[in-house]
Structures are given as structure tokens and as C-alpha cells.
Amino acid sequence: MRVDVWLWTSRQFKSRSLATSAVRAGHVRVNDAPVKASFKVVPGDVVRIRDHGFDKIVEVVSLPPKRLGAPLAREAYIDHSPPRPRIYGGIPLRDPGSGRPTKKERRQLEELRGEEWSKHSRR
What we know:
Layout: H1 3-9, H2 16-24, E1 28-30, E2 33-34, E3 46-51, E4 54-60, H3 70-73, E5 77-79, H4 103-113, H5 118-121
Antiparallel strand pairs: 1-2, 1-3, 3-4, 4-5
Helix pairs in contact: 1-2
């Protein structure tokens, strides 16, 4: 089965054209080698997909004949991806609906980020 078709049938991409575009752009590797969209995958191949700056590593288990529902599509691969890091600590978050930050709050946020705010307003 072609790699772009397998990516689509296993629900790694929403459409086959998106899968083909990702393969052509070099975001998909099979067994750590860059491939073309027409590359044939077989069970046992390891597919690495670059997605939003993170690698998703899946092992091909089966070749579904057509696009299946999500629970059945998960049976077509084994996910070996490391968990994505959670980036919540250290980022200042404002309460929803609290409006725009005041000038004082903006200075505190810039100071927290390590930016120098004195060059903007105080002279």
C-alpha cells in the first residue's frame, strides 16, 4: 500500500491530499529514510511523521483496505511516540474576561519575560 494512502486510511491525516503534501514536503520518513508518496509500506515499517514541531512515531501493523472509523484505524498501527512536553509552568496566564492588561501589568509581564521595559516609556 502507498504510504500516503496508509497515512490517510489510518487517520494520521484528514485527507489524502494532506498526506501526499506532507510526504512531498519531507515531513514523513519510513525506517528513517525520506520517501515519496508512492513508496510501498508493509507491516513492520516504522513511520515518523513531523507534526507541529514534534515527531509522531508509528509502527505499521496492518494495511486497511479502506478508511475506517477511528477505533478500528488505531488497530492499524502501534504508537511509539514520546509524550509531548506540557508547557504550562512559567507562562503568565490571565483570567478570561479580565480585559486588557494595564500599563503596570504590562511592565510586570515584560519584566517576567526578561525584557527591558524602561526603554519604552520612562526616560
